[in-house]
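Hi there. Long-time user, first ticket. I'm pasting a complex I've been working with (about 656 residues overall). I'd like to know whether the download I got is complete or cut off, because the file seemed smaller than I expected. Thanks.
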Amino acid sequence: MSADDILVTVQGLKKYFPITRGILIRREVGAVKAVDDVSFDIRRGETLGLVGESGCGKTTTGRTILQLHRPTAGSIIYDNVDLTKLKREALRHMRSRMQMIFQDPYASLNPRWTIARIIAEPLRVHKVMEGEAARKERVKELLELVKLDPYHLNRYPHEFSGGQRQRIGVARALASNPDFIVCDEPISALDVSIQAQVVNLLEDLQDRFNLTYLFIAHDLSMVRHICKRVAVMYLGVVVELSTRDEVYDHPLHPYTVALLSAVPIPDPRKTRARQRIILEGDVPSPSNPPPGCRFHRRCPIAKPICAEANPEWREVQAGHWVACHEVK
Amino acid sequence: MAALLEVKDLKVQFSTLEGVVHAVNGVSFSVDEGKTLGIVGESGCGKSVTMLSVMRLIPEPPGRIVAGEVLFKNRNLFKLDKPAIQNLRGAEIAMVFQDPMTSLNPVLTIGQQISEALMVHEGMTKPGAVGRTLELLDLVGIPQAKERYNDFPHQFSGGMRQRVMIAMGLSCNPSILIADEPTTALDVTIQAQIVELTKKIQSHLGMSIIWITGDLGIVAEIADRVIVMYAGYIVEEADVYSIFENPVHPYTLSLQRSLPRVDSKRYERLSIIQGSPPDCIHLPRGCPFGPRCEYAIERCLQENPVLDAVGEGHRAACWVDARKRRAR
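Hi, the file is complete. Here it is re-exported in full:
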């Protein structure tokens, strides 16, 4: 793989949020280690899935890549430019090339703005297109791309269903002609019959504009369908990363194995016959993660070393990365 | 086997400013002793309203039970007065709600909340109720029940809160536990814990369960019989194996086809259901699914099909047999 094929390189990324005490004299008493030393590449034109339970740091990772949070440490190389080193104006310039689709189509559209204004906003901010008339033409074009009738132009978000709103969010993300889109749980708020519509749309747009997606989700079945490669996160670290077939059919990390066995299969005979691994307890708090391997207290195969040393993030087979002492 | 709960031709409407919402439109089904009934459907299909009506928890007005009867152990619940219904609720028919964050009282300890039901319904003394509460917390797998008895809901994680809700539901040994999307707000690993727990408790105590969900995977795992609802109608009802292996209604079939599978390498495009569910104020003439149905014939747009037997214990409301793609 040549370096040209890689669009985003995440290197040693950390994001800690301070925990403070006191009102007048604020002191830092600790930190939530939301993302703690994460490294991976995103290839041009691929969809990389980022999965894990709520609170594992997947959304923070996505937002930190886009510099919506400034990282505590580490670098984000986007097309040979380190985003973490960029200052305001330079960063704003880069931002038109990377966009985000949000989870909640009800909260992510301004209820007081018309659809036309919402979708035209990136065009104005990034000065991609000057002139009201030109922008209006572009908005119409974008609405057609996401299969909404341009006739909706002057309506407000509350007049649309969840699926339609998510299409508006997609149109807005596409407005500035980005190469890279972080999709943060774009379908989890939608009903089953609408999810497939939005997923197919995202796939069509990817083919058409050669888009690169970071697809953050907790629905492991949908991730397998849409992503070429999948990264599994647990408590702020990536524990396994490989192609979808490797991760789903030959998972190596015990957490991945347990996570996959918890996903219900819509086939009564198969789902009742299979052996499940039920993890005990909850995900520990990221402000006080366990020492050594973060998963060791819930891990069915933990050994004494797991409580002491942090497992190394290594490539055990070509393209299959894992962080576990027990994987040979 | 005797039916424990029988719902006959239930119709529920809500008066709103925009018009009358036909939430439930003539629904009939029964639940056998010790069995699990799964009710599947998308948001707004009337699955929750059906069960809330059974419990007489529909706010009246704006809601109105227009027709139907509910027989529980051969007593018509709609003929009972308020105190009699209150005696039944929680004691004989218990409910677990979707959102464990909002359905627990934040200013009472979880011990107080569980023991309240015991004192009210079972006439237990305080020490007796405390003892039973500790047993229940133990049963649902809350570690250190004694210490946690005096904790408040905010001190519990989402999964633990849902366990508290289940403990509360089980407190008076109900004959039926109605679970309204009890795992929708939870992560898959926690969902698996709750599903396993519920199955274990059911085999222990032998109660019937009605499990309402939008997730076909969960239904495959837990249900004996399945009802599929759409726009306030039951469109198909069968045992769990027939629903998945031999679906007759095009809606059931399309729902299954639009779901990607975690255990499948088939990555072809997802098949989609065009459009979105009808709003229940303006239901289409004819079959409610007709306008979105790929098998629809002329008759479907004119006449609403009745729920009719298509096999042993298998009913479907469709003029067309989706298996054979021809009129029945």
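A couple of notes from our side: The longest strand of chain A covers residues 27-43. The mean pLDDT of chain A is 91.
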